[in-house]
Design brief:
Immunoglobulin-like, 9 strands, five-stranded mixed sheet, four-stranded antiparallel sheet, 1 helix
Length: 124
């Protein structure tokens, strides 16, 4: 019976420790964006600010690959997403402590999603 208590206490402390380490702290960090290309065509994106200046870009992401994240200051942007030879324009307001993912689907359409980096996540 004592062994079961000790095992339970150790498991409880392990769980608490894991949960405490699972929170990601974001100290006002700039947003980051990437391309996840599940389509059949090479994809690129130009990230333009409201003045029309290119702030960053992600180029030539091959089918079946994911680009590295690129950082941008917070604010409003126009994304020019090039899938194969087709250009698509998408407006986006990027906020601190968010990741943005441009997902190219199997049919070569796209969607843009955001993930709040301040939300707790369990690391295993």
């Amino acid at each position: 019976m004592k062994t079961i208590k000790y095992v339970f206490i150790i498991l409880l402390f392990s769980l608490i420790s894991m949960l405490m380490n699972s929170c990601q702290d974001c100290e006002g960090e700039n947003p980051e964006i990437r391309i996840s290309n599940n389509g059949t065509l090479t994809t690129s994106v130009l990230i333009n600010n409201t003045s029309g200046n290119t702030v960053n870009s992600i180029n030539n992401v091959q089918s079946g690959t994911i680009s590295a994240f690129k950082s941008c200051p917070t604010g409003g942007y126009t994304l020019i997403i090039k899938i194969g030879n087709s250009n698509h324009v998408y407006s986006l307001n990027m906020s601190k402590c968010y990741y943005y993912d441009i997902k190219i689907k199997a049919d070569n359409t796209y969607e843009v999603s955001s993930i709040n980096r301040e939300l707790p996540r369990v690391k295993i």
